[in-house]
Amino acid sequence: MRRFSWFNATALTAGFAFLYIPMIILVIYSFNSSRLVTVWAGFSTHWYGELFRDQAFLDAAWVTLRVAFVSSSIATILGTMAAYVLVRGGKFMGRTLFSGMIYAPLVMPEVITGLSLLLLFISIGLDRGIVTIILAHTTFSMCYVSVVVSSRLVSFDRSVEEAALDLGCTPWDAFKSVTLPLIAPAVIAGWLLAFTLSLDDLVIASFTAGPSATTLPIKIFSSVRLGVSPEINALSTILILIVTIGVISASLVSKRRIVQQQRDEQMAEQAQQ
Amino acid sequence: MNLARRTLIGIPYLWLLLLFLVPFGIIFKISLSDYAVSIPPYTPTLDLSEGWQGIRDFFAALDWENYVFLTEDDLYWRAYLSSLKIALISTFLTLLVGYPIAYGMAKAAPEWRPMLMMLVILPFWTSFLIRVYAWIGILSTEGYLNQLLLWIGIISDPLQIMNTPTAVYIGIVYTYLPFMILPIYATLERMDDSLLEAAEDLGCSRLSAFWIITLPLSRSGIIAGSFLVFIPALGEFVIPSLLGGSSTLMIGKVLWEEFFSNRDWPVASAVAIILLLILVIPIILFQKNQEKNQEADA
Amino acid sequence: MKPAAKPAEFAPWLDPNETPLIRFDGVTKRFGDFTAIDDIDLKIYRKEFYALLGPSGCGKTTLMRMLAGFETPTEGTITIGGQDMKGIPPNRREVNMMFQSYALFPHLSVWDNIAFGLKRSKMSKEEIPERVKEMLRLTRLEKFAKRKPHQISGGQRQRVALARSLAKAPKLLLLDEPLGALDAKLRQQTQFELMDIQEKTGTTFVIVTHDQEEAMTVASRVAVMDNGKVIQVDTPARIYETPNSVYVADFIGDVNLITGNATLKDEGLAALSWAEGQPEIIGTAGEGLTAGNATFVIRPEKVAISAERPEGMNNVVQGRIHDIAYLGNISTYHVALPDGTLMKAQAANNRRLSRRSFTWEDEVWLSWTDTAGLVLAG
Fold it and tell me: What is the ipTM of this complex?
């Protein structure tokens, strides 16, 4: 028996309205022709044009994309290694410290992570710029990757890897031809998560970026501090659109996989007869 | 083989040691240093050219002065208390808003659930900054909310919500809502509906069945969700600085200003260390809760 | 329960000139404080179908994993084909394993699963398809070569796992509870398939199982294990008929156990006094039996049940039928002896139901010959 009552319907409607109305308003008003953001003065794509003519925004976007791409790629490699070590590595010296260092950044306030990294870079005399942001982002996002990948590693039967060894694989060969294909969805999800985290990050980037490198969130933050701006509305709309397309297509893919799975199970039943 | 294993462990280990643990050592060290008008803006700095004497001088110059300063200037402890208060209240509010949503999702038809899940996760992937920013337009004096309320006629003068703690609460509830919904939904979804039927069969009303069956069984989800909101909210910087204005005091903002505006690195470091110490307790409690859940699952 | 259908002459363990394929010499394995394997010596010969039988946690899986190379002995040596296995990783052993969970690679087709090991061997690229085809034929999986593991049934997955582990023609095949995931009917059928394949390929099989019936059916020899020790190694028939301990007797099949005080007699017999006012029980003396505390063990099918007192028998007791379990071909009678002991006796149901002579609460006589049961120490 399902208890889908008026209460549940109201809760869901109100809840999702709360989650989505602010973003919808943002999207609608990005097409407002007036500079006074809160007063509707007719439809226009003027501010998108303005945005794409603003060299400072374009530069910041380019820096952000590069940082996100490089840091999420390194973080995916390091995070996958860390996950493998944690789940399959057995005992080694300092294992507790290692797993502590993997989980701590997940709950660490960004201001502390940012401050500590900045102080490190200064004390070793590393000039702040793109490189320092990449190092900082890699450090915290590798922990997220590691959590995502290790949950996948935990969920599958270890004997599959042993079977590969048993059939003549070297450990590296077994990882490459069996483990990696099996954890691939988690590795990809981890990369996407790391990429998004890097794109979004304001606080750590503010600490670790020097005057030479400004990321998009830093740029947005400094213009938003002065109030609502129509260019930011346009930029937000673009970002929301990208995320929406990404999330919807990802869920479509996973839905198709579930349907395929059901079909396969039917096939297996028929095979038995 | 052994070399491969050592490399596999060594690389991520070394990375985290150098870029996570060592920086904390540095924060701690600087929190014991003195403010100075120089580059870097603190003394002492370790001078290895002086050999042992340099190291000894260096350690001799470290003291707890900055921590004493934090207790003497009431700005800091007021900031800590106010952060705790704001984090607690907004965690509670997030729970009040999030629980019915999670409950509604868990009771929805199974074919709807993936869609609802996606709707909860989508904002999580959307830029945090943009989601906070969206509320500036809504809450400001001439914002959409005031326009709407004035138009309906409920109020005759615009409300002042922006730059008040209320705006910060709204911002935190809004941005952290998915963190509350997902763990609660996970526990509610696993719950067997026949438990409620059994309770009703044994004479419970629907409401009392909710109180004595559903709520206790979703406890671990509530605890997990609450920590997931409380811990980051405590050190939050973006929300108070965009929505809270000068009237809300939060420690993340104080740390930021101490560092960027006052350039007082030793005090900023001391502020960070104290914040860390405050966070240790909820983090440990959260870990305990997670471990307990895992044991229950196994 | 029937002894393995092996040709009578296959008994290399009796031939002193035969060298064993596998030797365990004083092997001990500890995990922290826990001793999983306690000083074990074993010899396994070529073409044997060797079963490691015991309850879960007895160390049988650890023993097998040491053969595969996934665990290393804490003490002692393991040799396979005369070579010390110390320090040799799993991928460099001519040993393959069939996993309890099958451990099929979910992302590869049946064909690729079977070819997986071959691609990592010295076999040339041209020979691989031929060999895979042969294995598919052997396990009757030709139709499913292109399917993924989740697209076939449980029984077929089991055969893919077998084909995959046999493809490299290993010296030794290890089977970890290979039939555990199959339902009872399929399991029986597969047991005979396994024996058939073992005979066809001439591979040495070592099987781990907790199912005594399975071990008895397939194995040439059975090693009964408990608490990290091997209690008895022998052919299924001898394990069943002449268990060397109460533990083995109790673990294999159904048995009556009567404890008492033993005295040794002539001609390898022993007498057991077990209850006041009851005559002593006569049975074959077990290995190393001394006077003192002992247990008489006898299989229920060796206990005869009759309404009249049988003449000329030493072992006769009277009792009352407490319970009857009708199993179709046979019935098991639970008979309460005067001192309260319950004793099981089996009789074939070679008459129709209406003609059956015994019913509840009937007074009956139980009897058995002098050599039907064993008196074992302990």
Answer: 0.88
